[in-house]
Amino acid sequence: MHHPPPDGMPLAAVDVRQLRKEFDSKAAVDGIDLTVPAGSFYGLVGPNGAGKTTSLSMITGLLRPDSGTVTVAGHDVWRDPYEAKHRIGILPDGLRLFERLNGRELLRYTGRLRQLPAHQTEERAEELLEVLGLTEAAGKMVVDYSTGMRKKIGLAAALLHNPPVLFLDEPFESVDPVSAETIREVLRQYTGTGSTVIFSSHVMELVSALCSHVAVMAAGRVVADGTLDEVRAGRTLGERFMELVGSPASKAKGGSLAWLGSSSG
Ligand SMILES: Nc1ncnc2c1ncn2[C@@H]1O[C@H](COP(=O)(O)OP(=O)(O)OP(=O)(O)O)[C@@H](O)[C@H]1O
After folding, report:
1. Atom 4 in ligand 1: which residue has the minimum CA distance?
2. Where would I find the ABC transporter domain in this sequence (predicted)?
3. Which run of H or E residues covers position 88?
4. Per-chain mean pLDDT for the chain
5. In this predicted model, what pLDDT tens digit does every residue of 36-80 receive, in sequence order?
6. 70, 114, 144, 229: which could join 161 in a potential S-S bond, CB 3.0 to 4.6 Å?
C-alpha cells in the first residue's frame, strides 16, 4: 500500500517538529512530532478536541504556530510559504467555497489561482467532475450543493493542480457510500503514483482499510504513530484507539448519568 516517492521528492512528504499552539493559555497542540513518508496514505485519528484540525491548519500554513517547524516536500511552510503551498492540496473541514459560482466556475477560478494554463484546467476539471459524479451539477451554484457534493467539489479543487501532498480534514463525512467509494478510488490512484494523502477521520474501519500509516492524537499530543500494523499492535485499530484514549463508555458506567433513561417515575 506504500509506494515510493517520485524522483526528486524527499523521503518525508511532511516533517513536523515540536509543533505547538495554545488557545487561552491552554495547549491545543502540545509540541508534536510527525514524519509522513512520501507515498503514504496517512490517517490522523483522535477524539473530539484532540488537536487534529489545529495541527492540520498549522501544517498547511493556515494557522501560525506558537513554535515548531513544518516542512512539506522539503520546504518550510512558514519560511518558504510559496514553495510549500504550491505542493499542497487542501480539503479543509467546514470548507468555505465561493457560493455564487457554479461547480465548473469554481474549478476554473481554482485553476487560475494555481496558475494552470486554461486548457489544462478545462481538461482536468471536466475529468474530475465526471469521475466524482458532478457533471450534471457542474452548472449549479455551489450554494445549492448538498454537504457531500461540497466535499466532492472541494476535493476536485484540491486535486486540480496535482499537488504531491494532499491534506483532507474529514473527507468522508456526509458522503454517501457510492461517492465514498469513488473518492477512495481516486485517492488510491493518487497515492499509487507516489503522492501522499494525509487525512483526519473518526471512522476506524475506514482508516484501517485505507491507510498505510496512522497517528493517534489525544489532548494535543501524539500518543502513537507509525505503520498501521505498528500502531494496531496485533489488535483492531478501534480496540487500540480505545486503549490509547480511554473509552468514555466506561466513565458513564461509574454512576453519572444514572438518571438517564429511567423515565418510569
Ligand atoms: N480558534 C480557537 N480558539 C480557541 N480554542 C480553540 C480554537 N480552535 C481550537 N480550539 C481548541 O483547541 C482544542 C483542539 O481542537 P481541534 O479542533 O484541533 O480538535 P480536533 O481533534 O480537530 O477535534 P474534532 O474531532 O472534534 O474536530 C480544543 O480544545 C478546541 O476547543
Report:
1. 23
2. 14-244
3. strand 88-91
4. 90
5. 999 999 999 999 999 999 999 999 999 999 999 999 999 999 999
6. 114
Cβ contacts of 19 within 8 Å, gap of 6 or more = 29, 31, 32, 33, 55, 58, 59, 65, 67, 68, 69, 70
State ipTM. 0.97
pTM for this prediction? 0.88
d(CA 150, CA 142): 7
Q: d(Cα 195, Cα 197) in Å, to the nearest integer? A: 7
Looking at the predicted structure, is the pLDDT value of residue 249 above 80? no
Q: Residue with the nearest Cα to atom 28 of ligand 1?
A: 49
Residue of 20, 22, 53 to mutate, ligand 1, most atoms within 8 A of C-beta: 53
Mutational pocket test of ligand 1: of 19, 20, 23, the residue with most ligand atoms within 8 Å of the beta carbon: 23
pLDDT reading at 170 higher than 90: no
- Please report, in angstroms and rounded to a whole number, the separation of the first and last CA atoms in the chain: 56
Query: Running DSSP on this structure, what letter comes out for residue 215?
Result: E
178: its cell numbers: 457510492
C-alpha cell read off for 65: 504556530
d(C-alpha 160, C-alpha 88), whole Å: 11
Q: Which residue has the cell 490512484?
A: 189
What pLDDT band is residue 96 in, cutting at 50, 70 and 90?
A: confident
* Residues 6 or more apart in contact with residue 256 via CB below 8 angstroms: none
User: pLDDT tens for residues 19-46?
Assistant: 999 999 999 999 999 999 999 999 999 9
Ligand 1 first shell, C-beta below 6 A: 23, 28, 46, 48-54
